[in-house]
Amino acid sequence: MKILVTGGAGFIGGNFLQIMTEKYPEDFYVCLDKLTYAGNMETLEEVLKRKNFRFAKGDICDRSLVDDLFRKEKFDVVINFAAESHVDRSIENPSIFLETNVLGVQVLMDACRKYGVRRFHQVSTDEVYGDLPLERKDLLFHEDTPLKASSPYSASKAAADLLVMAYHRTFHLGVTISRCSNNYGPYQFPEKLIPLMIEKARKGEKLPVYGDGRNVRDWLHVYDHCEAIDEIVRRGKEGEIYNVGGHNERSNLEVVKTILKALGKEENQIEFVKDRPGHDRRYAICPDKIESEIGWKPKHSFETGIQETIRWNLENQQWLRHVESGEYRQWIQRYETLEKNS
Ligand code: NAD
Ligand code: TYD
Predict the structure, then answer these.
(1) Is there a smaller number of Cβ atoms within 10 Å at the N or the C end of the chain?
(2) Which residue's CA lies nearest to atom 41 of ligand 1?
(3) Average pLDDT for residues 247-257, to the nearest whole number?
(4) What is the pTM for the complete model shown?
């Protein structure tokens, strides 16, 4: 199979490519990535050495570039990880979220139709369901829970999900959607809760917890999410939506305290700050459908996964330093010089 992975220089797409290019040497993977601030070629260092992989720099919204790529490569499968993914940035500037997360998806699906791609998989999020009350532990998100997004980010992802299902119904495009809970693991950009707090705790800085810190997220290790996507693409039914999660609900305060404890730091580093506008209270996924229909189950518990992630962040200071200093962006200049001279 020839598989296009968009957004593969980001956190989840990067982990996906690391795992799958090794697991399936008979398949060929192409990564299309715009290399926004969140795209990091240092994440793909090992993948770039593999014979079954090629990188292409480009924007999923660029219709002629996408058309050219699809015509040349004749993909069997497209997996769309490309997105603007940070809620706080979507509150600052929603426009780019609508462009990439909605219009970009349309461009990709138009190319899938034109060039006969068998499967378009949209990597979505549980945030499309909005939030659940803290005091109703019995309530979970199911695939048919109504969409009720709270932030410009989640609204853009919900809009894309609707468009994906519309392309299936109207044009019979072979689509699947996965809606996963919050991910953690190696190579996550340090603007997101877990890597941000590890870095701040390590440096002895204050840890900014929004509001009262009681907001709950349902955490899943990125390796489990990658396996779920791969299983859905290979075994999932066309036109279906699959929730992905592992019943790992934790309050933000619990997560932050776990990080401080693992690093031998004091809880007085915690600082409660002004709440995020529209802050979702609780996310909780029911993963029964993917477990019973596909046989996927998470392999990583939060207890061990978070400790491994803390260790990864401590042991991979070069990756983090390059993100902080902006050195990871130098790859783009080298790539553009190479392209010009070729
Ligand atoms: P990320 O921000 O780390 O990476 C996004 C990648 O997409 C980057 O490499 C970036 O350069 C690329 N990109 C952005 N705009 C692009 C464009 N216009 N054209 C081409 N490439 C572009 O995001 P992530 O955390 O890896 O998330 C990947 C996907 O998974 C997203 O669709 C997100 O909505 C979804 N998701 C994330 C989580 C999570 O906890 N991180 C949970 C559930 C679902
Ligand atoms: P985040 O990693 O941004 O993911 P999402 O908003 O998509 O769930 O945030 C996870 C939770 O942590 C969310 O409830 C907001 C909270 N948070 C803080 O309290 N402080 C921070 O500095 C950040 C980045 C997040």
Answers:
(1) C
(2) 183
(3) 98
(4) 0.98
